[in-house]
Amino acid sequence: MSAHLDDRPRFADPDAAYRAIIEAHRGLSNEDSAALNAALVLILANQLGDQAALEEALALARASLPPR
Q1: Is the pTM of this model over 0.85?
Q2: DSSP string spanning 24-44?
């Protein structure tokens, strides 16, 4: 585990959380889906309120992408 991020499961029902995210995107265009994701990231980053943890999360998310 990192110094800033808690990587333990925190949702009582992770499948329900996943379904809620997927459902929020249902029927959206690719552009609107990307805009929703951007807004969600900014809202959750504000809730996090920790610059170091945000930067760590961004690095982890970037590292999870397939190589190009």
Answers
A1: no
A2: HHTT--HHHHHHHHHHHHHHH
User: Domain count of the chain?
Assistant: 1
Angstrom CA distances, 36 to 27, 47, 54, stand at 12, 17, 19
Whole domain around residue 44: which residue ranges?
29-68
Residues 6+ apart with CB under 8 A from 52: 3, 4
pLDDT, tens digit, 9 for 90 and up, residues 8-35: 889 999 999 999 999 999 999 999 999 9
